[in-house]
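Mods, move this if it's the wrong board.
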Amino acid sequence: MAHLLKKIAFAALFLCVAATSAFAQDKIRTVIIDGQNNHDWKATTPYLVKILENTGKFTVDVATTPAQGEDVSGFNVDFSKYDLVVMNYNGARWNKGMEKAFVDFIVNGGGMVAYHAGNNSFADWPAYNEMIGLGGWGGRNHDSGPYLYIDDNGNVVIDPVQEGPSGDHGPQWEFLIDNRAPEHPIMKGLPASFRHCQDELYQYQRGPAHNVTVLASAYAPKDRRGSGRSEPLVIAIPYGKGRCVTNMLGHGPDQMKSVDTIVLMQRCCEWAATGNVTIPVPDNFPGVDKPVFDNPMDK
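Not the wrong board. Structure tokens:
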């Protein structure tokens, strides 16, 4: 009898482990890369983890490089373990083997989301700049690629001629975001316009801008030290068989309590990893009047 009970207990344990393993395999295996950034990655990475894990659709690891100025040549990530890479990183180049592995990961169907200053990194790495579509700062200039913006008629303008900065923003303020691709899976169901929290409105971004789909933009008025045009803030870029998204929103923890920041990051990540979006738009998603907040760390 005792022997039979042991067998039953073992079988139950085996089924439990198998079910747990299968459940984990159904989730989007994600790694956030951080460790160097001109923004507070130590504060924002925990928010990114919670924002994704709160959906029940992601498992999240964090890979942290050595600190700024330290040797990163030994830093490696096994991308074969993941479906998605989230770049909370703006720092030194990786070793050649890791860079090749990262490119291969995307080319073969992996997903990548460059979060906020993630599109400031690697100005001298051509493949990465193709993946992010547009970038700023980091020594980028006219040779880095054209400007991309939205004209008064809602048309995407790619301007390879104009000289000027590469990367800028005025003081933080609560700006209105325009949904530029309402049928795209990331943006489907979101309002035509919605009020974003006080944040940096990136402008004068340059890059290869190949096959870029502008998902969301915001007008940067000159009286707020803006460009005087509508600037892309969330863009989608195919690279090989992979899907990349550059999401320039979310300067720090305060911005990551904003419902639109949370929902856009969740949906950007799901689409980059799978090509589909099943994460719903919540009832408290903001309209045009004011931003809405919901701290993901409380869940």
